[in-house]
Amino acid sequence: MGRNCADCSGSGGCRRKFARWPRTWPRACGGWPETCNPPTGCWSRAAASWWPRFSISWDSRNWKRPAFCSRRRPGWRPGGTRASTEEKNVAADLFLGADTGGTGVKYVITDLAGRVVHDGQIATDPTSGKRTMGRLAIEVAEKVCPKKGAGGPTFARLAGVGLACAGIVDVDSGELSRSPNLPGWENSNLKRILANEFADRPVAVANDVNGALYGEYVAGAGQGCRNLVMIALGTGVGGGVLVDGKLVVGRSSGAGEIGHMVLDPAGPACTCGGVGCLEAWAGGVAILKQARLLAKVELKDTALARLVAAKGDSLTVRDLADLAHEGDAACLALFTEVGHRLGHAVGNMLNLLDPDKVIIGGGVAQAGELIFGPCRRHAPTLVLSPGARNTPIVPAELGPLAAAVGAAALARAEVSRAGVTG
How much of the chain is in helix, strand and coil states, percent to nearest 5? Predict the structure, then answer.
């Protein structure tokens, strides 16, 4: 095969011999043979330009073999299929972040600097994850590459994909083991579904609150901090923890479930089957349940009772907050109790983790000082460290797009970690 080129003077004659080697041989044996001693001019980038997956640089410390870089050569898609001519001339400089819920998928497309360049929402079928991701892929393709190739949508500019999903999701394997709001998604591999829909782009997955926490870390209330705790007050209560700039997910991806921290073993029943969880006081469902109970049993002839009767099943936490802002004593007492219980949970987290900030987000947090006031007053009374008593307790800044922004940032981190570039 002409492997030994000791007689070559660097005129390029050995390049033809190298070119006749089977292309799979170096990958099969793990490197180049020690018997090959080409002089400096024999192996060049030009001579190796046909090589399918690697850029080649010269290792001056061991000139007997070329050093292979991890960076993929431009024009090659993940999986080894050659991209079209149009795709080879386009830089992969965009990242998709999606946040799935029971009624819709919110998504953002960000650039290399993390700036949102597109955002949108599509309706979802909670019983079918694959169909939903297929629709999302088509819509995103129209945003990032309006001109479709002969084989359908192309993702020439898309470098990576991130998904934040309500439920318990294994961040390594991508398996979604439990998601009450998305029954059709349970026991499915989110990474595999997304890779199939988005042309084998690198994929990162997280639960929705971890996605929101990471979004606040990179672009919201947590910027400049390395250690954060987030509590999301929505229909239920979720939580997330960031330590030294990294999400804490635990052995089975179940860490950070602050909503199911037991505050009182004799407290009300929680939707999880436990008793006395934070969610049993501070979740949206629990707040509405308590308001209806008060209106029915204790406060029949009050403004709260009239509000509950007028709104019926359409009653929201915002309605109760509006009434509290008007000075209704019953609603004020209700939100004070919610803030007090939240402060109890925050105090526990300050003792446990001593974070730079505690971020409170979610729809219930829109009640503002009705909740934040009692929380900030009560939490420091439970904290041992004098320094931790002054930890800021702040509202989230990114609103409903927080989880999608975080998912895009996680996709960017995944691409960087994997060493894949456009």
Answer: 40, 20, 45
Q: Is residue 290 classed as helix, strand or coil in its secondary structure?
A: helix
- pTM (two decimals): 0.75
Query: What is 336-368 written as a DSSP string?
Result: HHHHHHHHHHHHHHHHHH--SEEEEESGGGGGT
Domain boundaries in the chain?
A: 1-69, 85-213+403-418, 225-396
On whether the CB atoms of residues 215 and 402 are closer than 8 A, the answer is yes
Kindly state which CATH superfamily the domain 85-213+403-418 is placed in: ATPase, nucleotide binding domain (3.30.420.40)
Q: What is the rounded distance in angstroms from the CA atom of residue 56 to the CA atom of residue 247? A: 35
- Residue 238 CB neighbour total at 10 angstroms: 26
The partner residues of 93 in beta bridges, in order of sequence, read none
Residue 254: HSE in the Cβ half-sphere, 13 Å Cα cutoff = 7
Decide: 407 and 204 in contact? Cβ < 8 Å: yes
DSSP 229: E
Rounded CA gap, 239 and 258, in Å? Answer: 5
pLDDT by position in tens, the chain (length 422): 444 444 444 444 444 444 444 444 444 344 444 444 444 444 444 444 433 433 334 333 333 333 333 334 333 344 444 444 444 444 678 999 999 876 788 999 999 989 999 898 887 766 666 677 777 877 777 776 655 544 445 577 889 999 998 888 899 998 888 776 676 677 788 888 888 888 788 999 999 999 999 999 999 999 999 999 999 999 899 999 999 999 999 998 889 999 999 999 999 999 888 999 999 999 999 999 999 998 887 667 789 989 999 998 999 999 999 999 999 999 999 999 999 999 999 999 999 999 999 999 999 999 999 999 999 999 999 999 999 999 999 999 999 999 999 999 999 999 988 765 44
Is it true that 85-213+403-418 and 225-396 share their CATH fold?
yes
As assigned by CATH, the class of the 225-396 domain is alpha beta
Contacts of residue 334, Cβ cutoff 8 Å, sequence gap at least 6: 287, 290, 291, 294, 320, 324
